[in-house]
Amino acid sequence: MGRETVEDPHKRFEAYVLPYLDVLYRAAVRLAGQKADAEDLVQESCLRAFGAIDQLRNVESCKAWLFKILRSTYIRQWREDPYRGRVVGVEDLESTLTDMAEVLQDPYESDPLYVHVVGVEVRKAISTLPLPYREAIVLADVARFTYREMARILEVPLGTVMSRLYRGRRMLRAALGDYAYEGRLKQRSS
Amino acid sequence: MICKELTRFIDAFLDDELSVIENLRVQAHLVFCGNCREIVKSEVRLRSLIAEDALQDSVPEHLRRKILQQIGEQPARERTRMLGVFTFRAPGFFSGLLAGAATLGMILVLATYLFKSLPGDVSPLGAEIVAKHQIYSRGEQSLQVRSSDSSEVASWLRERLDFPVRLPPLARPGERLVGARLSSIADGQAAYLLYERAGRRISLYVFKAAPSLASESPKWVAGVRFFTSALQGYSVVWWEDQERYYAAVSNSGINDLIEFGLLCVKGTTF
């Protein structure tokens, strides 16, 4: 039995886009940092998706197609808003980061690092990452895309996806380490 | 594998992006290295924190209503066509966090099991094929497209693979296509298709790379050369057709798989 094809654009939107509204919103919150900004982002992305719904040739690729729209909308909003500053290019960052060997000295503590970290701190830490790493983590860990899907959404080679994820997660660990340290201090003083 | 190597693999390992063979290597290292096990635990916790936090958020009802209202106000004929760049064709279906975690767990358990019990005359390729069959055929959550319409599945694969895949006609009674996903065999791209017949599941891989298939003497049936192997109660049959390699695996027996292979090659059985 084949999958039913929906022709009416409103019905197509309801059938193929609405099921992904929650995951779009979750990703938007972590990309934009603020819920109000995330709402604007999701709203505009949905309108653009509706405008282009007849270009969605394969409904199986709908989720990735939507995320490509979300990302493009976010970058456009970011560039238009002078208060948000420019999008940091990955080339600005790569040279300042540690190489693979340094990770070996990354302190994976026997006392689980994240016991003292709560959700809101995770979100805050993600939102402070430079965009290339933030979007990689959001696509992988929030939207659960495969590396190959991410490479297509981000329009970069597979190796770049892997290196951004790798570096982004190391940066996230470092940021969360600060929260964990503060959490431990609070716990000891209470 | 040494600890330094593990750091290169750790993300792909936890993101379920390694081949079964690579998984075996990582898993074997973890069995003996407590330090790396701690690293993996810590990384798992990091991912869980991100995912658990994300699951707390749902789109606010007022935003959902607003979007629906705005969409409803837009007549279909006046919709803009400004988004010509969004002709995305990549695979879109991905199972949720729980399904992903479950798959990863199954891979780990299975990889360890096969690693310990691999007989000397079975190639790593055979082990990889059987292991993936066990993982992907357990439920439909591992499939990226679920459809019994072979033309729909073929079209889905065509858009994602670097090579065309010809699907077998379903000529045997009670047989149906369950779905497909992208996979890899011997580190090369592969199509994975799941079939069902009389309650038994048959996995079919189609790939372009040419690993060493011949672990035994070939068996000629109706002019087609088949290679056969068996592992853990599963039969594996390989053949080549029009510069593509096919591998079918099931617990239904070699002869059943050869019949299935003939369907693929000739469109008919014995």
Q: How would you describe this protein?
A:
The complex is a heterodimer of chains A (190) and B (270). Chain A is an all-alpha fold. Chain A has two domains: 9-84, Orthogonal Bundle (Rna Polymerase Sigma Factor, Chain: A), CATH 1.10.1740.10; 90-189, Winged helix-like DNA-binding domain superfamily/Winged helix DNA-binding domain (Arc Repressor Mutant, subunit A), CATH 1.10.10. Chain A is built from ten helices and no strands. Chain B is an alpha+beta fold and 270 residues long. Chain B has eight helices and eight strands; from the N terminus they run ααααααβαβββββββα. Chain B has an eight-stranded antiparallel β-sheet with strand order 1-2-3-4-8-7-6-5, sandwiched between helices. In chain B, a hairpin with a 2-residue loop joins β7 (234-241) and β8 (244-250). The longest helix of chain B has 22 residues, at 34-55. In chain B, 35% of the residues are buried. Classes of the chains: A mainly alpha (190), B alpha+beta (270). The interface between A and B is large, with 75 and 68 residues.
